[in-house]
Design goal:
two-stranded antiparallel sheet, binds zinc ion
Length: 355
Amino acid sequence: MATTLPTPTRQNSMFGSHLSVAGGMELAVREAVRLGLDCVQVFTKNQQQWAAPPLRSEAIAAWKESLREAGWEGGPARVASHASYLINLAAAPGELRDKSLALMREEVDRCEVLGIPILVFHPGAHTVSTREEGVGRIAQACIKIINETPGYKTTLCLENVAGAGSTIGRTFEELADLRARIVAGTGQPGRIGFCIDTCHAHAAGYDCSSREKAEGVIKQLGVVLGFENIRCLHLNDSIGAMGSRKDRHEHIGEGTIGLGGFAAFVNEPAFAGLPKMLETEKGETAGGESFDAMNVDRLRSMIGTRALPALTPIVSGAPEAKPAAKVAKPAKADKKPTGKPARRKPAMDSKPKGG
Ligand SMILES: [Zn+2]
Ligand SMILES: [Zn+2]
C-alpha cells in the first residue's frame, strides 16, 4: 500500500448516488452528470425480480456511449452496480440457493459486459442454519462464481450490513473472515473486496456520531479489512439509533450520525479516490433543487476544514396533503397531480422485508 496518500480535496474526491435506470441504464449516467456528480450506482436489472431479460446490444452500446460522453471511461472506478436483494448466498441447499447463485452469476456477467468494475452485494442471511454454516455457504458461492469467470475485471464487494435478524456481515471481522476464505479458495484477491455503508455500520454498533468517533471506526476499517480492499463507500445517515440494527437511511447530517461523522469519512485520505455513493431519499425541494445535489454539497463542503456547514433540513417540494376537493374526479387518463400526500420514496437498502 502506498505510504503517501493524497489529502482529500474537492477535485480528487468522488461523490455520486444510486440512480434509477428506468428508461435505460444510460439515463442514470446522464442524470449523474446533470446533478454534478462524479460517479453513479445502478441496478443492471429489476432488483425485485428473479428473471433477467438478456441485455440487448443496443442497451450495452447506449450505456458505453453515456460513459464516453461523461468522460468516465478509464481512470478510477466511477460506476458500481448493486446486486438484487433477492439473492441470499447463505441459503441452504435447495431452490433458493440455486436461484441465488444463478442470479449472482447473472449480475457478475452483466457487470463484465457493461464494464462495471464494482458489484456490491449483501453477504446473506443464515436463517435456520447456524452462522458458521451461512458464512461457509457464502464463501463457497463466491469461490464458485469467481473460479467460473476467469479473467473478469468486476470485483465482488461484500457490503457490511446493519445486522437485523440472521444477516451476516455486521461486524468487520465477519467480513474479513469471508474475504479471507474466498481469497483462499480462488487465489484471486483482486476479485473480492468491500463496500462500507456508514448507516449500516452505525446501526450495527460502530459509533460514527462525531468526527472523533468516526475516525476511530475508520481506523478499525483499515486494521481489520485493509484500506486497499475497500473499493466503494455508501454514505448514508441513519434514522435508527447507534446499535439499533435498523437499516433506514436518512439525508446526510439529519440522522443519528450527523455531519461530524461524515466529516471524518470525506477527509480520510484512503477514501478520497473511492466512489462514495448516496442511497438516500430522492426528490426535489419546492425550489427545484435535487436532494442528491444538496447531500453531495454538504459532503463536499466539509473537505479540508473542521467547520461544519449550517444545516437546513431537506424538505420535499411535492404538494402537501390537502383536503380532497369535492369536484369532479379526474378522468382515468388524467396524469395531473392527484393532491395525494407526497409519499417519501423509500431510500435504498430500506428493505420492506426483514432479511
Ligand atoms: Zn448501502
Ligand atoms: Zn446495499
